[in-house]
Design goal:
Blueprint lengths: L3 E4 L9 E2 H14 L15 H7 L4 E4 L6 E6 L8 E8 L6 E10 L6 E6 L7 E8 L2 E2 L3 E4 L11 E6 L10 H7 L5 E4 L14 H12 L2 H9 L2 E3 L16 H14 L12 E5 L3 E5 L14 E3 L3 E5 L18 H13 L4 E6 L7 E4 L3 H6 L8 E4 L8 H13 L5 E9 L1 E6 L12 E7 L7 H4 L2 H14 L4 E5 L3 E8 L3 E9 L9 E9 L6 E2 L2
Parallel strand pairs: 11-12, 12-13, 15-18, 18-21, 21-23
Antiparallel strand pairs: 1-6, 2-6, 3-4, 4-7, 5-6, 5-8, 8-9, 8-10, 11-25, 14-15, 16-17, 17-20, 19-20, 22-23, 22-24, 25-26, 26-27, 27-28
Helix pairs in contact: 3-5, 4-6
């Protein structure tokens, strides 16, 4: 049998195919492939318990393009034999008007994970999809196509989030995102958290994804909302970088590609772009696979946060020329995308935060005027495994954006477990340095540890005040207390960003807005609305 048999209505007719007609055509196609399996015996009869056993990880769609999208599931079987899976895409939730469909076989080599890149779809549309094995069907999910590349859409609405641990917290943020009517969810990593010392083999990593996938609220969200995913370190081990054990890194990458609605390539490259007509281009970054090791913490702040003091070794390494989080080839790709894109808004999806995050500022205008030899941008930084460890690369990127006069650059970031809104400049301590990008950082989807386990609320609020003072004027907002996600509305005139917070210990909690911001087309800088 061919690895993939596919049928669709005749190209250019614009019509759909009734399900029975689709199954008859598929039966002929399968017979021609000599599989010996018929799909006409049952016109989709499933029991919920059977489906839950056969598709225990749920289903996902992702990476919407104008004419295609990726759909995914895993088939649970104890057999090492390959399993035949029927997939179909329809215009309606009852799956009666089929537009695409086919047969795939999956086996143990990929953990019985199935990816289909569904092609030949119409731009800027919602579709429904489903998988079936021997008459037992999965739940019905939704997939989205992006607007055509030359179109001028008037709106993009997406959510972004990160850090979903399995703890005492409830997945109420996932429930809330499912109600937000977004075009997709940008998940910025820490989708799973592995055991740093015990998750080693491919099967080890696969078992972690299966445990996380078992959450019903996660499954419901991902059946409803397309996923656009990048990784952070939770998918590998804490603090991962390019110097890790090559076999373990390969195992982690394989398991991630198997579990995500992302098509794997020969180089395991995850940096890529997603166009939304000429309104926006989302440039997804890989800040882990190619990065130099972090600069270790060498101080603590009020016994609360690990920190990096740039006056104490190895803190000065943060400024070393050539240190990279993107790597040479990805940085060159990003520069080309930024320079060549025709999209009005350029959105960078970074797994960790890009803007500076100081606790104490050693480079104030007064100190710089008194000492011309003062270390530029010196201070005590939050030790956060973020772009602060790669200041030369960040400065070069911001200067590139400035020199090319690239407007409307936004950054969506995660990792910190804290909300932040910041303007970014080539030199954050120079009042004359222009704003070249605007960054918004999400809190965590679940809480581990709870903020109140780190410190009393009053101390955390004091830390927020200190951070705002140390990072004035570019840090516009910081929230160390709440969990949740972010919703972004992009229009030709402006981008509105809302920080949604939720009590993850309350199983009935609803999301609330605690921070609302605007970036106006062509005007650099974040305006705080609420």
């Amino acid at each position: 049998m061919k690895p993939d048999l596919e049928i669709s209505p005749p190209n250019g007719t614009g019509r759909t195919m009734p399900r029975r007609e689709f199954l008859r055509a598929l039966a002929v196609l399968v017979a021609a492939g000599a599989t010996g399996q018929s799909f006409l015996a049952a016109d989709y009869a499933r029991a919920d318990d059977e489906a839950a056993l056969l598709f225990p990880d749920g289903i996902k769609s992702g990476d919407p393009a104008p004419r295609s999208a990726v759909i995914w599931t895993r088939v649970a079987t104890a057999s090492t034999e390959r399993v035949v899976v029927l997939w179909s895409v329809a215009e309606d939730a009852l799956m009666q008007n089929v537009v695409r469909g086919g047969v795939r076989t999956v086996g143990a080599a990929t953990g019985h994970n199935l990816h289909v890149k569904v092609r030949g779809l119409r731009p800027d549309r919602w579709y429904h999809y489903r998988f079936e094995v021997q008459g037992v069907g999965s739940v019905v999910g939704r997939l989205r196509t992006a607007p055509s590349l030359l179109s001028s859409p008037d709106h993009l609405r997406y959510a972004f989030a990160s850090c979903q641990q399995r703890t005492q917290s409830h997945y109420v943020a996932h429930r809330a995102i499912a109600k937000e009517n977004v075009d997709f969810l940008l998940h910025l990593g820490d989708y799973v958290y592995v055991n740093d010392s015990a998750t080693l083999t491919v099967d080890d990593y696969r078992s972690v994804y299966q445990r996380f996938h078992s959450n019903p609220d996660l499954q419901a969200l991902q059946a409803q909302v397309p996923l656009v995913a990048v990784w952070d370190d939770g998918e590998f081990y804490n603090g991962v970088d390019r110097t890790g054990d090559s076999q373990r890194l390969a195992n982690a990458r394989q398991a991630w590609f198997e579990a995500m609605p992302v098509m794997r390539n020969l180089t395991d490259r995850t940096y890529r772009s997603l166009r939304w007509g000429n309104l926006a281009e989302l440039m997804l970054l890989d800040t882990r696979q190619y990065r130099d090791p972090e600069v270790p913490a060498n101080a603590t702040f009020a016994g609360l946060l690990d920190a990096q003091d740039t006056t104490i070794p190895p803190g000065e390494e943060m400024f070393e020329p050539g240190r990279t989080t993107l790597g040479k080839w990805q940085l060159a790709w990003l520069a080309r995308r930024l320079a060549r894109t025709r999209a009005q808004w350029k959105i960078l999806g970074s797994s960790y935060d890009m803007a500076p995050w100081k606790l104490v500022d050693f480079d104030t205008p007064e100190l710089r005027a008194a000492d011309p030899e003062l270390q530029k941008n010196g201070g005590i930084y939050v030790s956060n495994e973020a772009w602060d460890d790669y200041q030369d690369e960040r400065r070069k990127l911001m200067r590139y954006i400035e020199s090319r006069k690239i407007a409307n650059v936004l950054v969506s970031a995660g990792h910190t477990h804290f909300y932040k809104a910041s303007n970014i400049q080539p030199d954050c301590d120079d009042i004359n340095s222009p704003i070249t990008a605007m960054e918004f950082v999400t809190g965590s989807l679940t809480a581990d540890p709870l903020p109140t386990e780190i410190a009393p609320i009053e101390l955390l609020q004091l830390a927020e005040t200190i951070m705002l003072q140390a990072n004035d004027p570019y840090l516009r907002h910081v929230d160390l207390l709440n969990q949740g996600y972010v919703v972004v509305d992009v229009t030709p005139e402006e981008t509105i960003v809302e920080f949604r917070v939720i009590d993850t210990l309350d199983s009935t909690a609803e999301a609330q807005t605690r921070g609302r911001f605007r970036v106006v087309n062509g005007i650099p800088g974040i305006e705080t609305l609420a």
